[in-house]
Amino acid sequence: EAAEKSGYAHFMLKEIHEQPRAMASTINSRLENGLPELHLPELTDEALRGIERIHIVACGTAMHAGMVGKTAIERLTRVPTEVDIASEFRYRDPIVDKNDLVIIVSQSGETLDTLAALKLAKEKGARTLAIVNVVGSSIARAADYVMYTYAGPEIAVASTKAYSVQLAVLYVFALRLALARGTLTKEETRRYVGELDRLPQLLEGLLADTEHIKYLASLFMNCEDLFYLGRGFDYALSLEGSLKLKEISYIHSEAYAAGELKHGTISLIVDGTPVIALATQDAIFEKTISNVKETKSRGARVILFCKEGVEVPQDVADYVVKLPRYEEIFMPMLLVVPLQLFAYYMAVLRGCDVDKPRNLAKSVTVE
Ligand code: G6P
């Protein structure tokens, strides 16, 4: 087993470090002449133009990838997109018809609820696209179309690289859909693709120095409750950041849409409550900052993640982590890395069994 970990202390850490390569394989195989290419002959541009609504259905981390995917698809294509938890979708008689595309996301391709949701969507006449990591898995076989992610085998129960490549495929899909529907021009699409090309190198840069995140984890390791805040893409990502922490460190945490906090949850913010604030989107930066200030004035200990070059007002955060400047809509694919590392180091420092957290299974093939 030590050999399989290639010198890393845990599979999870190894898999976090494998992300630049996994992202490069997943993205590069879908770019042609600087444009996104789905390699799905039946999903022609005409078929893409005919899609009226999209449903993204999945469980766990894959569902969280869907939350980012929804934000990207709606932003780039204006196609109404919903995200559903598979176990909810399958029992609520969902409104789905033949003009809808149902995107099923699954690392293993074997999750029972997700497979059942896929079958239901087909029965209702929708076309189904599976985004799956395991080749030939049940979900891959049952879907009309498949886009594989190239994460390679993921051993750690807590998903890291599989989430990132799910995001990558969802972004590539969104770009192709936007191009087909004319909501992006070729030039605009090429610019986004150029940014995707830079991603593996930026990830390498982030992974080259993880000491700072480890240090932050050492400062927060004894907390018992924690909040993740963000808006838009940052909110979608915060769900996954929070889940990672809960899964492996057993620290309770909640991801909250920053603007929603005041409608109840802020009553939980007291002196010393840790808040992880994500603020990578320019248009809503000020809004998020003002929500963070609301927590700070109630005594929160804040770590703020934002982009290099933005001005962070004094006294809004105890610690500021700045990420490289990068295309804003793709920021979740960068910011996920420090959030994974933070969860990882918190769990390690607390002596948890990082790769095999209690009560969890890598793949859930029962209801
Ligand atoms: C399990 C795993 C999660 C995973 C979920 C969905 O609960 O512990 O990490 O996100 O199943 O798995 P899938 O293979 O469908 O992505």
Tell me about this structure.
- By secondary structure, the protein is an alpha/beta fold.
- 45% of the residues lie in helices and 17% in strands.
- The protein has 13 helices and twelve strands.
- The protein has helices spanning 11-17, 19-28, 45-49, 60-77, 86-89, 112-123, 138-142, 161-181, 186-208, 211-220, 233-249, 282-296, 331-349, and strands spanning 31-32, 35-36, 53-58, 81-85, 100-106, 127-132, 145-148, 225-230, 252-257, 274-279, 301-307, 319-323.
- Strands 4-3-5-6-7 form a five-stranded parallel β-sheet, sandwiched between helices.
- Helix 12 (282-296) links the parallel strand 10 and strand 11.
- The protein is globular.
- The relative contact order is 0.14.
- The model has no long low-confidence stretch (mean pLDDT 97).
- 6-O-phosphono-alpha-D-glucopyranose is lined by residues 59-62, 106-108, 111, 114, 157, 159, 360-364.
- GO terms for molecular function: carbohydrate derivative binding; glutamine-fructose-6-phosphate transaminase (isomerizing) activity.
- Its main location: cytoplasm.
- The active site is at residue 362.
- It is an enzyme of class 2 (transferase).
- It catalyses: D-fructose 6-phosphate + L-glutamine = D-glucosamine 6-phosphate + L-glutamate.
